Hints:
The chain has 818 residues and is of the alpha+beta class. It contains 26 helices and 24 strands. Strands 1, 2, 3, 4, 5, 6, 7, 8, 9, 10, 11, 12 and 13 form a 13-stranded mixed beta sheet that branches. Strand 1 and strand 2 form a beta hairpin. The chain starts with a helix and ends with a helix. About 1% of the residues have low confidence.
Amino acid sequence: MLRNYFNTTLRNFRQRKFYTLINVLGLAIGLASSLLIAWYVIDELSYDSFHSDADRVFRVSTYGGEYYHLATTPPPLYEAIKNDIPEVEAVARAFTWNHSTMRLPLAEDQNQEAVFRETNIFIVDPEFLQVLDFNIIAGDKEKALKAPNAIVLTKATAERYFGSGAVEKGEVLGKEILFGGSRDGRQVTAVIDPGPTHFPFDMLVATTGYHEIADADGWDWNIMHTYLKVRPGVEENAQQMQGLRQKLDQIAEKYARPSLQASEIGPEQNNLLEYQLQAVTDIHLHSDLLQEHEANGSINTVYTMLIVAVLIVLLACINFMNLSTAQAIRRAKEVGVRKVLGSSRQQLIFQFLAESLAVSLIALLLALGTVEILRIPFNNLIGKQLSFDWFRQPELLAFIGGGVLLVGLLSGIYPALYLSAFRPVAVLKGKINTSRQAGSLRNVLIIFQFVVSIGLIITTALVIQQLHFIQTKDIGFDRENVLVIKNDREIEERWDEFKDALEQQSQVRQASFASGVPSQSAIRSTAMRDFRVEGSSSGQGMQWLLADQDYITTLGLEMVAGRGFREDITSDHTSGLLLNEAAVKALDLEDPVGKTVIKNQGENDEQRLQVLGVVKDFNTESFDRLVRPMAVQYYSPSYLSDYVIVRLTGGDASAAVTQVEETWSRFEPENPFVYSFLDQDFDRLFRAEQRLGNVLKVFTGLAILVACLGLLGLVAFVTSQRTKEIGIRKVLGASVAQINLLLSGDFLRLILIAFVLAAPLAYWLVGQWLNHFAYRTEIGVGIFLLAGFGALLISWLTISIQSVRAALANPVDSLRDE
């Protein structure tokens, strides 16, 4: 019996090569798309899940109002949690260290030090690896951060310093690295191979030796990322978790809020301040706070990609169903003969399902090969390095097996039930009418296919339009041709000399020193200070940075009132202040220029400052947030990490970088030159949106291709059914254009119906996505009209491939009596 099924399947494939090819190609595209997306989704959902007891680990965030939700917390929260919350098993903090130059000790056989510039170093508590227990490949996680001179490296960092061979042989432990300008020796105590995590790092250094920061008692200094692990069972007990949150609120009430009220620094309404918990496994896809480690992913992107994958597979299944039911008449006699010879309906259903499963298996083999071929381009598309190791992903193998079975059944079940229901007597007498029932279903499925295709076209176009809006909107500064040098106080005493030397270069237009740069404040700790108008009883927490007199012109900022800093006016250096428009509004200042503003009233660093000018608001963060109030004072080297902003003349970027690097080397020959371009830094803030746009462009194209393949097959079949009609019409004088219109008219009407259904659905979906942007593009009618016209044009061209071919055929051949 099985051999008979196999032979019958092969015979049907050979007899219907064209339709089999369309089915296989459609399913292969659908399966390949779903497999690629599955790799991406599995990777996105796996962030931080590799930690043992990951469900017991949480990050504490600081909430002080809608526009003041930080991923960071103040230093003393660490001790308060340890002392006041018994449900917590362990707690640890991490804070970003300034960029540092690292060296390896000079060996006897070397004449030059190996020098490295590190920008991703974190100072952490000794218990850090008990809370977030990354995969340790060398060393003891219990002791790794206990020693005062300990340093923990990632595998990639260890290979950079000591080579892959030393890492593989376990020869890295105990090696010494000279840390920073002081060249303190640090011993490597562990090597970590981190999995996908929201907390990317290259080096970990223990807080021992950094007491001035770790033991700071300021509740307004939110610089720490604080993680805690609850005791076993607490995470599953809603009452205990609620109690834990109440104790965090009690800490805020007991320590943080009184401290903020006493110093009047922080959120304007500091009674709102509270500490909230985030599951560590939720951070990557569900958190978009200020001062994240980096721009996170988006659960909406994951959902969108899953939906797209399912829709493409559905389109391919619909193609199979449509073509199978369309060919019902051709297989009706086969069904009748088989029933007369004793085949039961169940056997016929099994036969048709076997054919659909065979098509699915062939498509799967083709899809697997396609995935391997597209692995590198797909990684480039999504900005990841997925390994595509099939055998180390049992959940993916299960997904593949279940997916192929589901696709085979979904594609074949309706045709199997439909074809096996034919009555043998009626079939063998030629008395069978399949047009109304099957035709109505085919029309519905065609409409569904093009609702999906047109909806994806509109959605993709609007996402791309929003990305274009982000990239081209007037953000208040000129981000093109700006080079940013990460300066960890290497250029300090001679900063003005270095700046003059830069500006003498032919490729440099202007340079500026500042403690803050647009695009950095969203993912790095931003200095906050309290500002109040003289005589006011309440203050306003605002972003605060230091910048020299050329900051405004170097970034291309616009002054809307007053003036910027002047180097020749001494009072500008000591008491001058610039505000942005949001700060003027927050302080409720009218005619702000010349007004006196007090910074940190009642604190050691209290200053009376005079407003010199107002800067037009400019975006320093993602477009999903409104511009925040900002105050700028005159630059002088301080404890803050700073930047050198270099405005280039444009043109040869590599030559410009070379000139700037040569200038740096003259002043800092022992410290590596680390730089980035401002436009690229800014674009990284929208990585999730960019990935979504890239993915939608590619997979929308694939969805349209699958829909058009099905349409091509249906038109080919309809054309073959109407061969004699076409021949008669040609003999009677019908033109090629008239015959093309005859054959395409019904299909184009269905596509118009699909457009009417797809347009409002796409409008609603994109509207929901755009709602999370504070600054968004307008949804115009033009995109909908272009999408509808594009779908009609693509469909008409697809239909014309077969209809024109049929119209050009010799009518004598079609009318010959067989």
